[in-house]
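hi support,

uploading two proteins for the ticket. first:
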Amino acid sequence: MTARQRSDAAGDPDDAGFSMIEVMVTMTIMSIMMVIFTGAILQIYRTSTATESLATAQSQLRVAFQRFDRELRYASWVAEPGRVGTAWYVEFAGPADAGCFQLRLETDPGGGNASDGSGVLQLLRWTPGSPPAAGTPGQTIASQIRTTDVEPFFDLQPIDDEPYASASANAVGTDFVAAFQRLRIRLTTEVAAGTAQIDTTFTALNTIRDRVATNACSEGRPHP
């Protein structure tokens, strides 16, 4: 056998392939890169989901504000808010034949499994004389309401009330006297990405000073 034949039989050192150590190092580097890449994708997904949840919560409160403004602006009577069981209630009468309305904030919709951010705000409507049965679900207009905020969530300011009288003497509007019933609503929705809040006082422009404190629409509130 010639020297050339012996060299061909032994093989070219450049064609010997990869060693086991080289393969292991390559696989380790690829695994690390995959972990980093997967983590980045998951973080983007979580951020996107949280942002979408916050946007949904903000949208719900915006719609709720528009609904409150439309319904409460022309109310002819607003009840004193109160709590029965795990829910907060406030009833109000619409103008003329608009019927009765009730805002109900259920702080424990799961029945004993309440957690912060689990409250649900619903709106019920009925014809006077035909109140909804206790527990009747209404139209959900906001969810994920934070229930550990300072209560009450609904605060009625009666006619002749001076809501800003306790403000600084130099503040503007300290001598303001309410000519109509006013309902302050304070709600905060809480999701992983943050919170959205509504703290607004709505004026019932059809309320009058000599109207009696009770109304047929008070029948919609369950008894303790």
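and the second one:
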Amino acid sequence: MRHRYLILTTALLTTAFSAWDAAPLASARPAQAAELRTNAIQTRAIPENEALVMRIIFEDCLGYIRHDRMPFQGLATRQASPEAVKELRSPLLSRRGTVELLSARYVASWGVDSDRRFCMVQTIRDGDGPPAPRLLGVRPEGFIARVTGRAVKEKIPERYTGEEFSPLTVTGWHEPETGHDSGPERGVSFTIMPTDHNEDDSILEAGLLVMSGPLLPDIGEGAR
């Protein structure tokens, strides 16, 4: 029950925003299809930036979940556009903070609902203009093991995932079961999924992160 929220959110967002969706090419006229293919190749020039991905998971989101620290400080942020918020259609987006993160490609949000704290990074599909930069690239070989190693150091030792970082595999890490699905005694859990890939699949974009954790005692205003 505790992880149903993460798995459901992952499934919905991955289905809606996966860059592997070929429907636009199938329905486009020949000239439009050629342009779309060119744009697709351009968008798949994804630089490797695993250090930034790890920072967002374990410093920004986990720091907010556990210690009420304001996430994403020092990173490029600005107010998320109404169009981006509307496209994501998440009931959590308006709870606390919602910003465009790093580029128009990503929207980050964090806050508190009735039974959990949450921190999310989500991916926006490209519109008609130039594609937004993909800035969260990782090398898929061994990525799950590297995340697991860092999670263990952060006392999040359990996982429900295979060894492959893939849009076809649900990933998840969590603290030991506490017997509580809500409130201050629920554990921290998170999932991360790929949302795009470069032309030869050597780099995947880690563009979907959902983390949730316990409600905290009243420790001041902080990032809430």
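thanks. also noticed: The chain has one domain: 4-20+31-213.
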